[in-house]
Write a structure and sequence with these properties.
The termini are far apart. The chain is mainly α and 402 residues long. Helix 9 packs parallel to helix 13 and helix 10 crosses helix 14. It is built from 16 helices and six strands. The chain is globular, with a radius of gyration of 30 Å. It has two domains: 48 residues, no CATH class; 328 residues, Rossmann fold.
Length: 402
């Protein structure tokens, strides 16, 4: 047989062998070790970490897998003039959707202060609407002065506590217009209309013109600090340390959406759970300015509020830092959702049954309906009245069954 013929036969046999190996690889993959594939993936992770490269987030059309369960038991301290009404609406809707038991004031609906649970002296079990036997309260989210004993008595042990604070200067301005301080000053202070520094005279002696508690140190008051200790720095510092151990998270109104996204992670709630329309936001009716002397006096009068704010602001940024920069990407995405929801609830609900939000790295797909808009637009007092009616109906029905 010629040399050329032998070479052709050898080439043919080699090709047949290669085809056989290929077929075996396809038909019987488990004959070969899987560890090589895993080691390769592990090596890629190590390379990424050593080069400080961020592992890419999920594609925008791929929803994340939920590895935690939604927190259903919680307490929110609703601090005055700190965006609490907006947070309360988020919680009231969550309570309604999940049929939870909320701690509600046992007061005649629409009577004065019927949405307030009470202060330390009168916040007792008798001041709360009862629930059916063998059930527990799930949520506190209405106005009340912080009372550690009652909070822990009412809620399960695993319930996290959270609150919200605001830059004391911004909170003061908001309260000054809301509680009619500006109106009083306009009536009482000579030359009020001839200057934009409208708070200068008041800051020299706040008690001369109006009750100082409404505008100064009201955050401290809501956190349970008695007025007699507002300017006792050692007492305030010690009290803040106890608050730090009680409260799992404190939002900053000044970074409202970032706070909500961080809270969402802690509660394992969906993006739809956090959607809102801003509630009870006041508008300044008079142009004003604060001098540097005004600001110094304001910090002096609001010593307790300043201490609380600065403590929880520092803690907030430590928590943000531990989450990483992706939190800000998530917040930017959330703001886009809020704009779409706002446009739909204000204009689009008259034309379409819902607005659809596609899935993303941070959220499964969801829609916002006309009914969702209606709940977000419901005022705080009206929502409290509806919850009270529902709570009494549930409790009375349980009595007839027993």
């Amino acid at each position: 047989m010629g040399c050329g013929c032998r070479k052709s036969i050898s080439a043919l046999l080699a090709a047949i062998n290669i085809c056989c190996v290929f077929l075996v690889l396809i038909a019987f993959p488990r004959l070969f070790p899987r560890k090589q594939v895993l080691d390769t993936a592990h090596t890629c992770d190590i390379v990424a970490m050593k080069s400080n490269q961020k592992i890419p987030a999920l594609p925008s059309n791929e929803a994340p897998s939920n590895k935690c369960s939604k927190v259903r038991n919680l307490a929110f301290l609703k601090v005055h003039k700190c965006g609490g009404s907006t947070i309360a609406n988020i919680l009231q809707r969550f309570v309604t959707r999940n049929q939870l038991n909320v701690v509600l004031p046992n007061k005649d609906t629409w009577s004065y202060g019927f949405n307030h649970l009470g202060i330390n002296r009168n916040f007792t079990m008798k001041s709360v609407i009862p629930i059916p036997r063998n059930e527990t309260y799930n949520v506190i989210c209405h106005h009340v002065e912080y009372n550690r004993t009652m909070f822990k008595k009412l809620l399960p042990e695993d319930a996290p506590f959270f609150a919200i604070v605001r830059d004391p200067e911004e909170r003061f301005v908001s309260a000054a217009f809301y509680y009619q301080l500006v109106k009083d000053l306009k009536r009482k202070v000579k030359g009020f209309n001839r200057t934009n520094y409208i708070f200068t005279e008041w800051l020299k002696n706040p008690r001369k013109y109006t009750s100082a508690i409404e505008t100064s140190n009201h955050m401290a008051y809501d956190f349970g600090i008695s007025e007699m200790y507002f300017h006792n720095s050692s007492y305030v510092d010690e009290y803040i340390r106890s608050l730090d151990s009680d409260f799992d998270f404190v939002l900053l109104m000044d970074y409202f959406d970032e706070s909500l996204m961080l809270l969402r992670r802690k509660l394992c709630w969906s993006m739809k759970d956090m959607v809102y329309l801003r509630s009870n936001s006041g508008k300044n009716k008079v142009d004003f300015a604060l001098s540097e002397d005004d600001r110094k006096l304001l910090r002096k009068w609001q010593m307790a509020d300043v201490a609380i704010f600065e403590h929880f602001r520092a803690r907030f940024w430590r928590q943000v830092e531990s989450e990483g920069r992706e939190l800000f990407q998530e917040t930017a995405f959330f703001k886009q959702i809020l704009r779409r929801v706002r446009d739909y609830c204000k204009y689009g609900k008259l034309r379409w049954p819902s607005v659809d939000i596609a899935s993303s790295s941070w959220s499964e797909s969801f829609n916002v309906t006309v009914e969702d808009c209606k709940q977000m637009e419901t005022g705080e007092l009206e929502f409290v009245a509806m919850l009270q009616k529902s709570a009494w109906a549930k409790y009375n029905a349980s009595l007839t069954r027993s």
